[in-house]
Amino acid sequence: MNKTKSRNTVIITICIASALICIALTFWGNWKNNGVLTTDAFIGVMATFIGICATIIVGVQIVNHFELRRMQENIKAIEEERKEMKNQQEDFSVKMYNSRLCMENAFTVIAMLAEKEGDNALEFTAWVYSIIINNWDSSRADVLLSRYIRASELSIMVFKNQNERVDLAKELYAALAFFKVPDDIKYYEEIMKFHFALRSLLKSVYSSNANNN
């Protein structure tokens, strides 16, 4: 309501100002030429003034048209950049997924080879990192659960003497601390039981060693 009133006030003011300008120009022109003030003179001045105003308005519209066109081109360019960024993001996601899958497979192979060699520490480390690097959205929960079970079994043997492998315990605890298990995964409760047990064991190993020192 207030905006409408303000707009009407501006329009009325412009009309009154235009009329006054036309009257002033009429008087000035007739006084300068010692002529007689007539209605035709006033109408002629007003028509000239309206023509000038119309020219200005048309010019402004032309400028606005070019500005609008430029804005549309900028919007189109931004939209194309957004699509390109989206494509790059999707491409990066695919590459990231493939990289994680390759690393997961590599850690799995290392764990299996370490098991054959009887290297419990290396096998334990490989299984833990295969869990962390795993893409949980596309992995089978039973596979992940079996990895947790195997890692828990190995942790008892690896950290039987808590004065040994302190650095390894600290490193793996820090890695697991920033790792979040999705709560919608199958066997979530069983996995979390092994997850927290493993973290507690790793923390107790480096914490007790730190206290002793």
Task: Produce the secondary structure layout.
Elements: H1 2-32, H2 39-117, H3 120-132, H4 141-158, H5 166-177, H6 188-212
Summarize the structure in words.
The two termini are 78 Å apart. With 213 residues, the chain is an all-alpha fold. The model has no long low-confidence stretch (mean pLDDT 75). The protein is 84% helix and 0% strand. The protein has six helices and no strands. The chain folds into two domains: 81 residues; 119 residues.
Which terms would index this structure?
213 residues; mainly alpha; 2 domains; 6 helices; 0% strand; rod-shaped
- Please tell me the overall pLDDT: 75
Which geometry do the CA atoms define? Answer: rod-shaped
Question: How many structural domains does the protein architecture include?
Answer: 2
What letter string, H or E per element, gives the SSE order?
A: HHHHHH
| H/I helix tally | 6
Which class best fits the helix and strand makeup? Answer: mainly alpha
Kindly estimate the percentage of residues that lie in beta strands according to DSSP: under 5%
Percent of residues in helices comes to over 70%
Supply Rg.
Answer: 41 Å
What does the largest sheet look like?
A: none
Q: Kindly, what is the distance between the CA atoms of the first and last residues, rounded to a whole number of angstroms?
A: 78 Å
Poorly predicted tracts of residues: none
How many strands in all? 0
